């Protein structure tokens, strides 16, 4: 099979590998779509210091694959099933849940595979990712795609859509809410689509015209260009405009960017008793949030058991996340897919197999 490997320092290469075989309880999936995620890009640009490279090569000499095959946003068709597999069969269309785990501990049984002490994320060293023709996955990681959900939907379900769906569920969002969403990469844009579908009024904060345009297309009630606010000599005006459009301040906030400013601004916009959820780290929390009784919660992807609820929601509200895809590449050009995504002048970038 063909697969992309990451070589560090923004270098990557498509290589040939032997076709994998499913063992007992495992499923071989022929990948149809694999999305490039912001977290893949962190791995892609990471430059290993020369002294550390030798150490890593020794540490991971038996890890397969090494260097890693990235990708955790994969969907495809079941090609073959291993011994004992009963819930999927060849020909089924599936999205692949991207944390592999023991399947037996308390957290696994609850569906929180990512909390298992033995968990491994697809695309990390030692756990093959989805930028490959084929991928073997445990049976319990196969989320069968309902009719009406495309392979592109399946790739979103594997990461961006599930992240935003779980986060917004924690806020208990409804038509009573005004929400400020920060960061308009694919996760933030999924947040815009879903917050609208849940009935909230949405202000979307981000940068780059292409992403601000997508937020408008997905129905955001107000779109704010963070760079324009920063460059503005009269920032009071934009804050005045926001207050005018959202007179009661915001009851809810969703932070997806990991930027310190974004966290600060989001908390400033929240009203008393406001509640916020963040899926991105790296931002300290100012101490005045105490006086406002603000609730802030972290959220990391979605438990496996929430899949049916998410699939039903996407079908019911015709979320049409495919509109977010701006660039498509075949696996032979996966290197270009990463270069395009790293330049950030894009919506969602995918690799697809026709
Ligand atoms: Zn992702
Ligand atoms: Zn476990």
Structure description:
- The protein is an alpha/beta fold.
- The chain folds into two domains: 208 residues, Quinone Oxidoreductase, Chain A, domain 1 (Alpha-Beta Complex); 137 residues, Rossmann fold.
- Helix content is 31%, strand content 26%.
- The chain contains twelve helices and 17 strands.
- Strands 3, 4, 5, 8, 9, 16 and 17 form a seven-stranded mixed beta sheet that branches. The protein has a six-stranded parallel beta sheet with strand order 12-11-10-13-14-15, with helices on both faces. Strands 1-2 form a two-stranded antiparallel sheet.
- Strand 13, helix 10 and strand 14 form a beta-alpha-beta unit.
- Helix 4 packs across helix 5.
- The chain is globular and about 60 Å long.
- Bound molecules: zinc ion (2 copies).
- One zinc ion binds next to loops.
What's the SSE blueprint?
Blueprint: E1 2-8, E2 11-16, E3 26-35, H1 38-45, H2 50-59, E4 74-81, E5 93-96, E6 99-100, H3 106-109, E7 120-121, E8 134-138, E9 142-144, H4 151-158, H5 160-171, E10 178-182, H6 186-197, E11 201-206, H7 209-217, E12 222-225, H8 226-231, H9 235-245, E13 250-255, H10 260-269, E14 270-278, E15 295-298, H11 307-316, E16 325-329, H12 334-343, E17 348-352
Parallel strand pairs: 10-11, 10-13, 11-12, 13-14, 14-15, 16-17
Antiparallel strand pairs: 1-2, 3-4, 3-8, 3-17, 4-5, 5-9, 6-7
Helix pairs in contact: 4-5, 5-6
Throw out a few tags for this protein.
single chain, 354 residues, alpha/beta, Quinone Oxidoreductase, Chain A, domain 1, Rossmann fold, 6-stranded parallel β-sheet, 12 helices, 17 strands, binds zinc ion, Enoyl reductase (ER) domain-containing protein, metal-binding, oxidoreductase, zinc
């Amino acid at each position: 099979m063909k697969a992309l490997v990451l070589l560090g320092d923004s270098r990557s290469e498509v290589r040939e590998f032997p076709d994998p075989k499913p063992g007992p309880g495992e499923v071989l999936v022929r990948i149809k779509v694999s999305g490039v995620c912001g977290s893949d890009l962190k791995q892609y640009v990471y430059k290993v210091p020369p002294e550390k490279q030798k150490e890593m090569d020794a540490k991971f000499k038996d890890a397969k694959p090494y260097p890693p095959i990235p990708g955790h946003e994969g969907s495809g068709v079941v090609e073959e099933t291993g011994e004992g597999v009963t819930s999927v069969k060849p020909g089924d269309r599936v999205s692949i849940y991207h944390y592999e785990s023991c399947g037996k501990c308390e957290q696994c049984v609850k569906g929180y595979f990512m909390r298992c002490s033995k968990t491994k994320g697809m695309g990390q060293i030692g756990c093959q990712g989805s930028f490959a023709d084929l991928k073997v996955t445990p049976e319990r990681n196969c989320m069968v795609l309902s009719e009406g959900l495309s392979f592109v939907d399946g790739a979103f379900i594997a990461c961006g859509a599930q992240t935003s769906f779980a986060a917004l569920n924690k806020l208990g969002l409804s038509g009573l809410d005004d929400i400020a969403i920060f960061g308009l990469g694919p996760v933030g844009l999924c947040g815009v689509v879903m917050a609208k579908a849940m009935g909230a009024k949405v202000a979307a904060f981000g940068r780059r015209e292409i992403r601000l345009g997508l937020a408008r297309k997905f129905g955001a009630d107000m779109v704010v260009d963070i760079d324009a606010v920063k460059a503005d000599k009269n920032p009071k005006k934009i804050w005045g405009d926001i207050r005018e459009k959202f007179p009661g301040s915001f009851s809810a906030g969703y932070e997806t960017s990991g930027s310190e400013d974004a966290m600060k601004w989001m908390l400033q916009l929240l009203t008393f008793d406001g509640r916020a959820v963040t899926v991105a780290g790296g931002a300290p929390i100012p101490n005045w949030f105490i006086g406002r009784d603000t609730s802030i919660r972290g959220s990391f992807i979605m438990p496996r058991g929430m899949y049916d609820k998410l699939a039903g929601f996407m079908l019911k509200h015709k979320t049409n996340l495919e509109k977010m895809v701006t660039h498509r590449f075949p696996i032979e050009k996966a290197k270009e897919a990463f270069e395009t995504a790293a330049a950030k002048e894009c919506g969602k970038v995918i690799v697809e197999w026709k």
